[in-house]
Amino acid sequence: MPISKLPQVFPRAEFLRRLAAVKDEMAKRDVEALVVTDNAHITYLTGSTARSFDTRGLVVSAREEQPTFILRWMDVPAAFQETFLDRDKVIGYPEELMGNPSKNGYDAVIDFLLEAGLADGRVGLEMGTLTVHSAEKFRARLQQAQIEDFSDIITSIRSVKNDLEIAVMKEAAAIADAGILHAAKVISPGMREADAIAEIVGALARGANGKPGTWITTPFLGASSRIGSPHVTWSEDVFGQGSQINLEIAGVRHGYTAPICRTFSIGKPSDRLLRIHEAQLAGLEVGLNSVRAGAVIGDVAHAIHRATERLGFKKRSRPGYGIGIDWMERTLSLQEGNLSVLKPNMTFHLHLGTWVEEDFGYSISESIRVTESGVEVLTKVPRELFVLG
User: Fold this and answer.
1) Same domain, 167 and 153
2) Of 13, 252, 319, 336, which has the fewest beta carbons less than 10 angstroms from its beta carbon?
């Protein structure tokens, strides 16, 4: 019996609209075929969110309405269920390409290009997600083609969301809020960090407003002596009275990801923690007041940095970046010197985390949407230093 489609979050017409935008960029570069290898871009163009850690590629042809999805044979059923693609547009490559030192799934993608007559002109290729070995494989086997680097072009296309995408981002943001509020409820002295994470992950999976989380991104939890670094996971340690916890999590709906950071103190926070909270909160508020369509990204970043410095804390990292599918959108970096202009329905993680010394740091952030007149904050948790116990 054929596998039935899962209920589609986005209609078929939405994916065809996205593909049309990609084909417009292909036409500008005289590209006949495009090989998409970035997982977030594959999600954007097909709806596929299944996690396959094997090589796979999506071939967009200027001649065809639908792209062709080439992936490991065992992942084909998920593609049938999740994507809008017709069955003949999903091709599974054989197991013999697994663990093979000389061949992999990209050989199946190259075979398809050659057999379909798509390898004689300009071929777009997302080079940024390929290993050197895989990139060389394409060049060696497609000798008649002119390889055009297409890295980050689709990222730029999807940086401006439509109303359907914003609705899903709001669902993800509500899930992130639920995770933070649950953390504030359950974290207590004597609790293991691992047990706190188990509770938080459960909240992220259960979701909010009847909408479950559809994926769990790695939650970051730094406590006590480990609060001087942002990208650490939980340990076997136990929270004690006076512990500080920096938490960064995200809600996920159908690939769309809304992150949030908050800091917690078990018992009375130190004066230093209170001061850095006030400084970073001030920077966050300045950022929110500076964001609007037409603003220069670098100017927003400059205003944030000056606000925190006036209160005695220099933030050395950028204060934000674009978000969407699979957390980060690489082409949108909220940092000084960036002359790009904000557009309505761009979405950002406005991140006022700062790491001052090896054993001291603080984190607060919001997921936001740029509007014509300002900003919409998607995450809604109180903007406070959570004092527990």
Assistant:
1) no
2) 13
